[in-house]
Amino acid sequence: MGLIDDIAVSAGCEYVSELKYHPGRYPAFGVLRAIEAGSYDEKEWNEAVRYLIDEEADDCDSDTCKKRLLEFLAS
């Protein structure tokens, strides 16, 4: 399993797509906040940004990707 799957499972999502289309329904923000950026490689973080936010991650580092994901989940 990868980062997106781990967030979805820990947040109680039945499907990964629920994170993308209904992020406010699940405690994904708290789950992601608790994950150390170094726990996953940059490829995983960039894939999460591309999938969840529909933006190019521009090969950002793990900390930057985590920040972008937290901003997305907080909105």
Give an overview of the whole structure.
- With 75 residues, the chain is mainly α.
- The chain has one domain (3-74).
- The chain has five helices and no strands.
- α1 (3-11) crosses α3 (28-34).
- The longest helix is centred in the last third of the chain and has 13 residues, at 62-74.
- It starts with a helix and ends with a helix.
- The model has no long low-confidence stretch (mean pLDDT 90).
Key words describing this protein structure:
mainly alpha
Layout of strands and helices, then pairs:
Elements: H1 3-11, H2 17-21, H3 28-34, H4 42-53, H5 62-74
Helix pairs in contact: 1-3, 3-5, 4-5
Mean pLDDT: 90
Please report which band the strand proportion falls in: under 5%, 5-15%, 15-25%, 25-35%, 35-45% or over 45%: under 5%
Radius of gyration: 11 Å
Number of domains: 1
Count of DSSP E strands?
0
Structural class designation:
mainly alpha
How is the biggest beta sheet arranged?
Answer: none
Helix share, percent? 55-70%
Elements, N to C (H/E): HHHHH
Principal-axes shape call: globular
